[in-house]
Design brief:
With 339 residues, this protein is an alpha/beta fold. It is built from eight helices and 16 strands. The strands form four sheets. The chain has an eight-stranded mixed β-sheet with strand order 6-16-15-10-11-12-13-9. The longest helix has 13 residues.
Amino acid sequence: MTVRYPRPLRPGDRIGVTSPSSGVAEALQGRLEVAVHDLEERGYEVVVGRCMDGSGHLSAPAAERAAELTEMLTDPAIRAVVPPWGGETAIDLLPLLDFERIGRAEPTWVVGYSDMSTVATPLTLLTGVATVHGNNLMDTPYRTPGGLLSWLDIVTAPQGEPFAQTPPGRHRSGGWDDWARNPGIRDLTLDAEGTWTRLDADGDVDVEGRLIGGCIETLVNLAGTPYLDTSRFAGDEPLLVYVEAGEDNAFTICRGLHGMRLGGFFDRASAVLVGRTHAPDGRTLTQHEAVLDALGPLGVPIVADVECGHVAPSLPLVNGARGRVVHTAARSEIVQVLD
């Protein structure tokens, strides 16, 4: 399957906003307005969809969410689709999405993480269209720390030109900003130090492959199904697989990664990147140990504490991009090429 990239966004392009999972509560409408305004200030036209209700855990019935997402992804005037954030049960969309129709349409950027992995990763695997695992819409107003890129930097990048990201060495130790009180906040609280950690061995890492991955808690439910089948993806190229835990304890993550490995998700992995997490350890098992227990048998480099998960800041990764990861005592970097 050939990877296809949506064309770079340009001022004047239209961005669709919909909630394939959870909508936006009334108290947080101010943050949504700030984020939309920021996109408009960059010269984009923003279309906010009907499926945005935040009074429950789902923005609308599954059929309505699937229909709106499909409409946006097949509308040639919409060049990118981004949700306000993730949620819990976007898995109910998968049997309702017309992947063949979406695959025939001109590629559109899909952006997001957390429960959006449930949609974005299968979309890339089933259609070959690249998607962005990165900041959601409500994160967009934050200033991007040095060394990293925002999702807007990536979807406007010229195809074929490499772009690099390096860990800033600082991250958030915990907690969340109060967007209800301060909807316009732009400065991330990065009050803890730390960089990438190799789990499987000592020594340098320098490895390449096509990127694919997402949130463990949502993707584990797709293991062994066509929605998480990497066997035909990008021919026989090696894969740089990335995973991240949002909130499940180490025992649950360990079981989930074992299941994903048994389901074949890591079969072509040249390396595994693991996002930094605040998810709890178990009484006798840490999150790092959980990863090693499940993925150590792969015999490939495993690099943890990468900024690709639920802990700020965010290092966006493109499902389908060619990637190169370098991790040494002196340098940590990931380079992606939309090629």
